[in-house]
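Our preliminary data section would be incomplete without showing what the modeling component actually yields. Below, a chain of 504 amino acids is followed by its predicted structure, encoded as tokens that our downstream tools consume directly.
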Amino acid sequence: MPELKPWQRPRQLWRQLPKPSAVKLPRVSGKLKTWQLTAGAATVGLAISAGAVAAAGPWDSSGQRTAERDWAASQEAGGGADHGGRTPGRAPSAPSVLAGLGAPAGTAPVPTGRALADVLDPIMKDPALGPEKAAVVVDAASGKRVYDKDADKLLTPASTIKIATAVAALGSVGPDHRITTKTVIEPDTDEVVLVGGGDPTLTARKDGRYTDSAANLRTLAEDTARALTARDVDEVTLSYDTSLYSGPVQHPISPNENITPVSALMVDEGRLDDSVSGPAPRTGDPAGDAVRKFAGFLEDHGVKTKGEPGPSQASGRAESLAKTESPPLSFLVERMLTHSDNDIAEHLARQTALAAKEPASFDGAGKATRAALDKLELPVGDAVFADGSGLDRADRASALLLTELLDRAADPARPELRSVLTGLPIAGFTGTLVDRYPEDSPGTGLVRAKTGTLTGVNTLSGTVVDADGRLLVFAFMTTGTTDAKAAQKALDHMASTVANCGCR
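Predicted structure:
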């Protein structure tokens, strides 16, 4: 008998870490009538509200993406509120769900391939899914593949490639890594250099979502001014250093409202409005905008700047003044996956490149991602990582790779990968799935999945607990779709069908 590959070996999952609780769901032919909201939402690292903000339309202005126009669920923890656009009233509630995530392997029956085929094969024939498609369902506890349609076929993954970006970054850089933005002063001069470290979540805002957790340019300016005052310096020549990254800064689809030029220095992802996710007007000069704001903050603290700040490169002799650090990488991964954040994705890919001593460019990041996944003995095959976000149509991945990435993240032996699962949007409640599942859908609250959408491409990959309480990992991929809404509905139907299935 041939030796099993690492991703084919049975293993016991979900025993060592806290996870959501759940109740067994009955096998029914119709849709469940309760909202499946987990009471212990904090255990998955996401702030889940009992209500959600409805997203505005599936297509952005460029027609480039659909599922990525997302709004986060309301941050309020309680029910009974008016949650931004939905009818005010008491928010729905339900018994806690997802007990299968914490149950020892083997306590719930494993679905059979034949039973899953009986319910999924008819949906796979839906014309809305287009001419090219692939699907894989894996039992997380055993690693056994229980449903398989063209598992190895390479298709355009769109934003589900972010799962690979996340696993590669966490596996090579580590979940506790923080990205540093700093200021230095060249010796015997008055030149202060703002040095970018590749933190796209660095903010210049006083308040708003994520400002409490993000590194803040205002604080860095205050600390820098304090250090300069201690040196009896009240006027400086200000410059900025973006040399950490190399290669083209423009993504192949740029300029585009879905992504800012990829610079090692930017604030608020280069957004020109107050948004924190989804498409938005973007600056074409993220580093220049950041340093000009920094100059203003320095002057607020009594340090004047001479002339217009320009690009520079800090020398090895430069002396440190101040620094600020991003949240841990695990936090950035969760934020990226929940909102399908393209900017964070590209910067995480470059962090992987830096760890691998590859150029921090699109090409270097692709090589480093492949190497990191190879090291984890994942079935990479001929996958193509043209970017970290999935905006590039040159990306290729198989449904098998997507499921094995998630299955590896579920392995207790890989706790550093856990935020790949905790960051997945939750059907009907958070991120890019906030408005994709109706209230009475059996998948609502039970499906946790990364969306992926480009014109003519629709994918969905994540986890689901079936009616017997068994945790399953899935990837559904389609190419050549002509009706985005219909394709998304079919994919969501597939995931909900698995959630509603006893399938023995």
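The longest strand covers residues 457-465. The CA atoms of residues 238 and 308 lie 8 Å apart. Preliminary results of this kind motivate Aim 1 of the renewal.
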